[in-house]
Automatic annotation (TrEMBL):
The protein, known as: ABC transporter ATPase
Organism field: Flavobacterium silvaticum
Source species taxonomy: Bacteria, Pseudomonadati, Bacteroidota, Flavobacteriia, Flavobacteriales
Length: 160
């Protein structure tokens, strides 16, 4: 069952999918509609999941659930991955590749392979103060507080 994102508790579980390219505004509208339809029917063992989403910067899809009402199960998580794979095919993007880094480069958001980001750090093209998107956060509270952070405050710190 779809609910507004701001109603999810801090303990809610989230999954963050970053696109290897920016979505157009038209694509965002289509994707939002598809996600809402998916979430409206998303269930675990026949029980509706209280779920929501955000699309940030036309690049990130954040899906969250309220685990207090019903926790996601292996099958329901598999359903969500299949849904994301469907979006990948439809929009010709990578959403499941975790070997990439997205970060702020001035007013722009850049997306690089992990190897390229590592090289940029070595060449001092990015620093520990570079704002990165820490897509490894697991809860809604962590997402709200620790998703956009200086690289030294996330797993990216190993490159500096």
């Amino acid at each position: 069952m779809y609910v507004p994102f701001d109603t999810l508790p801090d303990e809610g579980r989230i999954w963050i999918y970053q696109s290897n390219r920016k979505f157009s505004d038209e694509e965002v509208a289509e994707i939002a509609s598809s996600i809402e339809a998916f979430l409206e029917n998303w269930a675990a063992h026949g029980t509706a999941l209280e779920a929501s989403y955000e699309i940030q910067y036309n690049r990130f899809i954040i899906i969250g659930i309220n685990q207090e009402t019903q926790a996601a199960t292996g099958c329901s998580i598999d359903d969500s991955v299949r849904f994301i794979q469907h979006l990948e095919k439809k929009y010709n993007v990578d959403l499941l590749d975790k070997m990439n880094v997205t970060f702020r480069n001035g007013e722009f958001i850049a997306h690089k392979s992990l190897a390229d980001f590592k090289k940029m750090a070595k060449e001092k093209a990015v620093s520990g103060n570079t704002i990165v998107f820490n897509n490894l956060v697991n809860s809604v509270g962590e997402y709200r507080e620790f998703w956009e952070v200086p690289a030294t405050e996330s797993w990216h710190s190993r490159f500096f």
